[in-house]
Amino acid sequence: MTEQYEMYDDPFKMLILLATLISEKQGTELKFEHVPSYENEVFAIEHQKFLYKKDGTEITWFEFLGRDIASSSDLTRSQYNKMFVDCMASLYSL
Predict the structure, then answer these.
(1) How far apart are the C-alpha atoms of 19 and 64, rounded to whole Å?
(2) 38: which strand partners?
(3) Which of 74, 78, 85, 94 shows a CA-CA span of 20 to 30 A to 8?
(4) Is there a contact between 84 and 11 (Cβ–Cβ < 8 Å)?
(5) pTM, whole model, 2 decimals?
(6) Where are the domains positioned within the chain?
(7) Whose CA is closest to 22, among 43, 37, 40, 42?
(8) Terminal Cα distance for the chain, rounded
(9) Cβ atoms of 5 and 72 closer than 8 Å
């Protein structure tokens, strides 16, 4: 089993924002128990897993987004923020 690290509150909120932007892009409402699937060259997200492809950081949760959330990488707040800003920019090809 891969080692898991606790996430800070701010990056968790950025993950929710990313999931919300994906839902809006797909024309659906975000449901925490069923996060919409999306994948591009930068990241992938599905029901209980987020993957940042550039460094392999994986964030998982149990049943609904926010429950027992953990990361495969022990990142600083700044590193998480840069990762999520990169993901959000990739949604809109910025």
Answers:
(1) 12
(2) 45
(3) 94
(4) yes
(5) 0.87
(6) 9-91
(7) 37
(8) 36
(9) yes
